[in-house]
Structure formats: C-alpha cells, structure tokens
Amino acid sequence: MNINSFLRKKNISDLQNENHSSQLNKILNLKDLTFFGIAAIIGAGIFSTIGRASYEGGPAVSMLFLFVAIACIFTALCYAQFASMIPVSGSAYTYTYVSLGEIFAWTIGWALILEYAVSNIVISISWSGYFVSMLQGFGIHWPEWLAVDYWNAHQAFLAQQAHETLTNNDIKLAEVYKSAPSFGGIKVLFNLPAGLITLFVTILAYIGIKESTKVSNALVWIKLVVIVGIILIGAFYVKPDNWTPFLPNGFEGVMGGVAAVFFSFIGFDSISTTAEECKNPRRDLPRAMILCIIICTVLYAAIALVLTGMVNYKELRVDDPLAYVFDKIGMNFIAGIISVSAVIAMTGAILVYQVGQPRIWMTMSRDGLLWKPFSKIHKKYHTPSFSTIIAGVFVAIPAMFIDMQVVVDLTSVGTFFAFILVCSGVLFLDYKGYSKQAKFKLPYINGKYIICPLFIIAMYVFLFQVDGLKMLNDKPLLYVFWLVWLGLGIGSLKYQFSLLPILGILFNLYLMTELGWSNWIMFIVWLVIGLTIYFLYGRKNSKLNQIFNS
C-alpha cells in the first residue's frame, strides 16, 4: 500500500475549470453571501445556547464571544484566501484536497457532514420549542407528546419514580411521558415539529438556490430588525448590579461555555459551499465571510451583556433565554415577538445548512469518494437533488427522536478540526508558492521571531502564574496544544511561516482542549465509520486513483 496514494492532491487549475463547467446557477452576489452567513450564524445560538453559556460564565461570557470571534476571524481569513483561489463547492474539504491530500480531505469532508447535520438537528429541536410556544401565544395547543423526544421524557419519568429532586421542566416531561399514548406497550413520543420544519426546508433547498436565497434574505432582514430592537429595549432594563461579579465562576467558568458559544458561530464556512453559484466568487466570498463574522460578533456580545444585565446570570439556564428575561420583567408582548422571531431566525439557519450539506456530498461524489448518485444535478432546478433528499432524511429523523444536549457539543470537535486543517493548508500553499495565485491573500507577517518568544512567555505564565500543572492533569489534551505550538515555532524558524494562519491553528486547538471526552469519543467513532467507507469504497473509486494508476 503506497503512502503517496493517501496524500495525492487535486490540481488548482483543474478545480478552476470545474467552476466554469458547473451546471449550478450562478446568481449569488455579495449581499446574498453575507446574508447567507448571517442566516447560518444567527440561529439557535442567539435564541437558545447563549443562555447556557451565560449561566456558565456570567457577564464575562460577552468576552468569550469576542475571543471565539477572533479565532473565527483568523480561520475566516484562511478560508477567504482559499475561496479566492478555488471557487468550487466543497468548502474545507476541497481546500484540504488541494493542500494536504486525499486522506485529510476525506476526513474533513466526513467531519463536515457531521457538523452540518448535527447543527441542523440541534437547531430543528430548538425551533420546535419556540414554535410550540408561539402557537400557545396564539391560543393553539400542540399535543405535548408530539413535541418532546422519548429519551428525555423517559429519563425524567424514571427520576420521578426514584423520588429524585427534579426541575420544573423535568416534572413536566415526566407528566408528558405518563399521559402519552402507547403502542404495543411502548410510549409514543417524538418531536414532530422538528421533523416537519426539516422537510419544509429540504423541499425549498431542492427546488432552487434562487428561491432559497430570496427566502433566506427576507428572514435575515426580519431577525436583524428584531435583534437590534431587543438590544435597544433591553438596554433600558439593565441593572449594572447584575454585572457584578463580572467573572463569578472564574476563567474556567467562562471557558465552560466554549462549546455553546462556538456553536453560535458555526456557519460562516457554509458560505464557501455555494462557490459555484456565485457571480464573482473570488471577490465576494472573502468579503462575505469577514463581514458576517463582524456583524454577528457585535450582536452576540451586545445580547450577552443585555441578558446578564437584565437578570442574574444564574437564571439563564433555560432554552429560551431572550423570551424568559422579557417575560420576567412583565413585557409579555416582547416575549411573544421574540418567540416569533426565533422561529423565523432558526428557519433561516436550517435553510443555509440544508443548502450547504448536499453541496459537500456532491463535491465528494464528483471526486469519486462517494457514490455517483450524490453528484446528480436536477435538470430543471439545477440543484444536487439526491444529496438534498438524503441530507433532509439525515437530519429530520434524528431531530424527532434525539435529545438536543447529546449532540450540541459534538458539532464543535469536527468543526475545530476542519478549521485547523484549513489554516494548515494556507501554510502549505505559502511554502509551495501557490498563494501568489490568490486574489485575496492574508497579510504576511513573518512568524520567525514571534512564535517561539510567544511560546516561552505563554509557557512561563501557564506553569508559574495559573497553576498549569493542575490544568494539564485535568485536561491532558493541553499537552497536544503545547507540543503543536512548539512545533510551529520551530517550523517558523526554518520556513518563516506566516503568523496569522498559525494563530488560527493555536486559537482553534486551544478551544478544542476545552471540550469534554464524551465529545471526542463520539467524534472518533464517527471518524472510524468514515475511514472504513473510504478504505472500502472511496480510495479505490477516487478519480485521482485512476490517474495515479494509469
């Protein structure tokens, strides 16, 4: 087995020709792309997971949004350089195929499938909660057994039977379980709205990018107006005393919200999956990525400050924090508007992911790594039809039966991994001299005399100022972080690596160390399944394999 066969790379000029011969409709401009990114980023994060992050970190979670945004900016700049060189659908998968080789590309493609699917599962479940609340606001009662997953309800019931102390939400779930209809002795409970919204969005994604873009842009305008309104109104009800202490659980408490906060930012990379449908991808893709991150960071930080200023951070461990705080101060009308706008916002986010995921599958299929039907383009709608249907099924069924908390952290591992490889790919392009072809290029700052001194300073602070040895015992993955930093420092001395991609690698790698072992175990299982498919099918059927053996 030749090791070179795993590291074979795609040619940049061949990929550029692919874009010219694409059967997809080229209709997207800078505004469409920026709004696509905003639609993906401002979804369940700002209406749901921001509450849990605030509960963990207190008012200081607003700083965590800025910290994570910096990591995303460094990564987005690397994405932008690739996008200006390779205007082809596939996102990090395609970029890695060009720079690091096939086995890494497959790994990233497989991780992206998980990222997009899990993101939409989480958002669909959260959408269901807000949808049911919205219906109740209009006097419509949705059957409770058709709006919860079996696992949560069953666990709450067992805890009640064991006379454990339960939250109000758990008591409600236990009662729903007891009153749910039975079939063959098994209680029937599933989250029907989560499945229905996925079905609706999948149909929209199937019939065309033009229709999807119109709907997405309209939804973005609505939620931007609502969110800015929430910030302005909420600012009048802020009590500065709620911001004290600013760091109630210390730095560790703030970093405990990393998964929830990072989940809030996942989505800007989905812009690159629409490269073949852009009018001017080399110019507009880089601009759109940076713009959407800047806009969303400002909104997230402002919302976090308003939330933690309106009520004590300890009250924010709820699934609908924005509606909760306005209900708390007696502004039920605003809480109702928030529920409606949350439904709108999350619909837009689901749409973006349901557009993006099939295009990654399509690109992998075109390369021979997945079965041919995944690359089929509908003759009338000019969309990857089979991939879109499979993506819908892949999200809708789990969304109806899985607990949101089981999968919310899983998204982050694969995404961090993808981001690190994209940043590493830019270092490779610089080393080979390919970066000269980029229309957008990262500002070059020679890391030769910066990375190693920063490593020495950071290591001193880590070991002697913040009890680093204890942190290493608690989080062994930090060993990997420091070894990678040392390796990049040595590499910078030898190859004069650019500073910005290295900062992107280090920021993302450090954030990865904050994730729990359960997330890593699930990700590794997913990776093993993916590599099995690659070795049984992808490696042999790869188009590059045919060239390699000819």
What does this structure look like?
The chain is 71% helix and 1% strand. The chain has 550 residues and is an all-alpha fold. The chain folds into two domains: 3-135 and 195-437, Amino acid/polyamine transporter I; 152-179, no CATH class. The protein has a two-stranded antiparallel ribbon with strand order 1-2. Strand 1 (182-183) and strand 2 form a beta hairpin. Helix 10 packs parallel to helix 13. The longest helix is centred in the first third of the chain and has 36 residues, at 102-137. The protein starts with 11 loop residues before the first helix and ends with a helix. 52% of the residues are buried. It comes from Apibacter muscae.
Layout of helices and strands:
Blueprint lengths: L11 H9 L9 H12 L2 H14 L3 H25 L6 H8 L2 H36 L12 H12 L6 H12 L2 E2 L2 E2 L4 H16 L1 H27 L14 H6 L2 H8 L15 H30 L10 H8 L3 H35 L18 H17 L2 H5 L1 H23 L18 H14 L3 H7 L2 H19 L3 H15 L3 H25 L1 H7 L1
